[in-house]
Amino acid sequence: YAMLLSLVFLIVLVAAVVGFVFRHEIKANFETNLSLALRNYNMTADQHSDAVDTIQRTLHCCGVQNYTDWEKTEYFAQRGIPQSCCKSQDDCPEGDLKDPSKAKAKVFVDGCFSLVTSTMESKMSIVAGISFGIACFQLIGIFLACCLSRHITNNQYEMV
To answer: Domain 1-158 is classified in which CATH homologous superfamily?
Structure first.
């Protein structure tokens, strides 16, 4: 049991170190994938389009860097900026969403990439604290398992 718990501890430790070392590559990869999701955004309910809509609604943002990123997409040519960018769903007609100058007043102008990364970075201390607490419990479990194993082997030949 101690060896299994040690293996899990090492895997988590390696994952944390790799995540810290490659954090810049993770950000760049996220930005690339978010841009790709915008280019492939469509009206059908696929997972990538739903994810873009959820991010935009939740974080009150639009596009990757800003709302003008939508102008480079095929979706914009057909329907304009998506409804998920609107500040108010009641006051966001499709005609205004096709005109970038009118849309600026009706949609969130900030990009999602900076908001997502700043939100993730602000929550990192919480994640690190929880991870540290779990690691402490794992180390205590390893220590207690080793103590139990030693106690069992020391008392193996005791007369009953």
So the answer is: Tetraspanin (1.10.1450.10)
- Report the run of H or E that residue 148 belongs to, with start and end: helix 112-154
pLDDT tens digit string along 33-87? 999 988 888 866 678 888 899 999 999 999 999 989 998 888 888 888 888 899 8
Could you tell me the pLDDT band of residue 139, with boundaries at 50, 70 and 90?
very high
Contact 76, 27 (CB under 8 A): no
d(CA 160, CA 155): 10
For the record, the structure tokens of 86 come out as 């609107």
Q: Is 144 helix (H, G, I), strand (E, B) or coil?
A: helix
Q: Which SS3 state, helix, strand or coil, does residue 68 take?
A: helix
pTM beyond cutoff 0.85: no
Half-sphere exposure of 42 (CA within 13 A, CB side): 5
Residue 17: what pLDDT? 85
Query: DSSP states of 9-59 as a string?
Result: HHHHHHHHHHHHHTHHHHHHHHHHHHHHHHHT--SS--HHHHHHHHHHHHH
